[in-house]
């Protein structure tokens, strides 16, 4: 009965019974054993953490884990370094009360320019409509 008397092992992450024990790496900060799924996930995670990407604003290279995702309303794709993120946030809070085109003070209703309009800040309805009409005509 040798096989059955062996204590079953459980994955320390998902608690699934582990048939093939995977040893966690020390830098992962988790206990062994791991099931194959969790092991692979961890491998992927630590690989992701070592990827170097550029800040889309200033081009500085940094680990992905040290870069920031732009806020949704900034309408940006990619990652920002901490410095650019902070600057952007400041810019945004400064600009958000005025239309980026005509300078009218904005109320509750404001419009985000589309990325390819190259306009900073938000727009009043008039300017947004005007821009949109211009672009559509092209
Ligand atoms: Zn697992
Ligand atoms: Zn940057
Ligand atoms: Zn305006």
Describe this structure in words.
Strand 3 and strand 4 form a beta hairpin. This protein has helices at about 1-5, 35-50, 80-95, 125-135; strands at about 10, 15-20, 50-55, 60-65. The radius of gyration is 25 Å and the shape is elongated. The mean pLDDT is about 90. The chain is about 35% helix and about 5% strand. With about 140 residues, it is mostly helical. The strands form two sheets. A two-stranded antiparallel ribbon has the order 1-2. A two-stranded antiparallel ribbon has the order 3-4. The longest helix has 14 residues, at about 35-50. Bound molecules: zinc ion (3 copies). One zinc ion (ZN) binds near residues 102 and 127. One zinc ion binds near residues 58 and 83.
């Amino acid at each position: 009965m040798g096989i059955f008397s062996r204590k079953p092992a459980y994955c320390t992450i998902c608690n699934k019974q582990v048939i093939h024990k995977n040893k966690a790496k020390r830098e992962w900060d988790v206990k062994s054993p791991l099931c194959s799924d969790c092991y692979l996930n961890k491998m992927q995670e630590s690989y992701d953490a070592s990827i170097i990407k550029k800040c889309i604003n200033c081009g500085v290279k940094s680990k992905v884990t040290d870069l920031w995702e732009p806020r949704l309303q900034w309408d940006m794709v990619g990652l920002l370094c901490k410095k650019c993120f902070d600057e952007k946030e400041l810019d945004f809070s400064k600009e958000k009360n005025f239309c980026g085109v005509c300078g009218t003070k904005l109320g509750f209703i404001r419009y985000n320019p589309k990325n390819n309009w190259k306009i900073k800040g938000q727009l009043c309805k008039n300017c947004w409509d005007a821009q949109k009409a211009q672009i559509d005509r092209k």
